[in-house]
Amino acid sequence: MIDVLVVDDQPMIRVGIRAILDSHDDITVAGEAADGRAGVDQARRLRPDVVLMDVRMPELDGLAATRELLGPAATRPDRPRVLMLTTFDADHYVYEALRAGASGFLLKDSSPDELAAAVRVVASGDALLAPAITQRLIERFVEAAPRDPAAHPVLRTLTEREREVLTLMTRGLSNGEIAQGLVISEQTVKSHVSKILQKLGLRDRVQAVVFGYENGLVVPGR
């Protein structure tokens, strides 16, 4: 059973999400919160698997709440996975939330099936990375001027193949697409991804994409 905490300042949104998720046998809504501060408190008390976190809220916005839950001070090993809820155009917060450790984001106009699927993906330890939307968000907020990828000392720990995989991840390719492009097995790609995250000290695939853009592996807009 996947326990979910819904954090959103709009009661109708919370009611709708609860109704959708509670209709699935493997998902239950463990609690709700109407602002970021209450969301952090509830998450620490209830210890949900996934927190559905709205971006814009009173008291403490979704970005600040995510930082509190996932930042260096949050040493609890079973920290929840945070899935941001957003309406695309207004949310410069989303890019910072990805950097803070959020496992991805979901548009509020997503279908009920997409919502349930997103919760399952994030709960499984994967990242919800919608390539087209994520790329637009990152390109919008990462400086377009290319940086020298060799300048980051951590990147030097990657093998040539791992750098290839990271570059393709940054471009939004799935494991299957990377495997096809490099003519290797998908299991080999998964192994490379795991090693990349470990070497770079990253939480998941979303943070790897942000890292790739920030360090010039892919130049925004190209």
UniProtKB/TrEMBL annotation:
<keyword id="KW-0597">Phosphoprotein</keyword>
<feature type="modified residue" description="4-aspartylphosphate">
    <location>
        <position position="54"/>
    </location>
</feature>
<dbReference type="GO" id="GO:0000160">
    <property type="term" value="P:phosphorelay signal transduction system"/>
</dbReference>
<dbReference type="InterPro" id="IPR011006">
    <property type="entry name" value="CheY-like_superfamily"/>
</dbReference>
<dbReference type="InterPro" id="IPR058245">
    <property type="entry name" value="NreC/VraR/RcsB-like_REC"/>
</dbReference>
<dbReference type="GO" id="GO:0003677">
    <property type="term" value="F:DNA binding"/>
</dbReference>
<dbReference type="GO" id="GO:0006355">
    <property type="term" value="P:regulation of DNA-templated transcription"/>
</dbReference>
<dbReference type="Pfam" id="PF00196">
    <property type="entry name" value="GerE"/>
</dbReference>
<protein>
    <submittedName>
        <fullName>Two component transcriptional regulator, LuxR family</fullName>
    </submittedName>
</protein>
<keyword id="KW-0804">Transcription</keyword>
<dbReference type="InterPro" id="IPR000792">
    <property type="entry name" value="Tscrpt_reg_LuxR_C"/>
</dbReference>
<dbReference type="Pfam" id="PF00072">
    <property type="entry name" value="Response_reg"/>
</dbReference>
<keyword id="KW-0238">DNA-binding</keyword>
<feature type="domain" description="Response regulatory">
    <location>
        <begin position="3"/>
        <end position="123"/>
    </location>
</feature>
<feature type="domain" description="HTH luxR-type">
    <location>
        <begin position="151"/>
        <end position="216"/>
    </location>
</feature>
<keyword id="KW-0805">Transcription regulation</keyword>
<dbReference type="InterPro" id="IPR001789">
    <property type="entry name" value="Sig_transdc_resp-reg_receiver"/>
</dbReference>
<dbReference type="InterPro" id="IPR039420">
    <property type="entry name" value="WalR-like"/>
</dbReference>
<dbReference type="InterPro" id="IPR016032">
    <property type="entry name" value="Sig_transdc_resp-reg_C-effctor"/>
</dbReference>
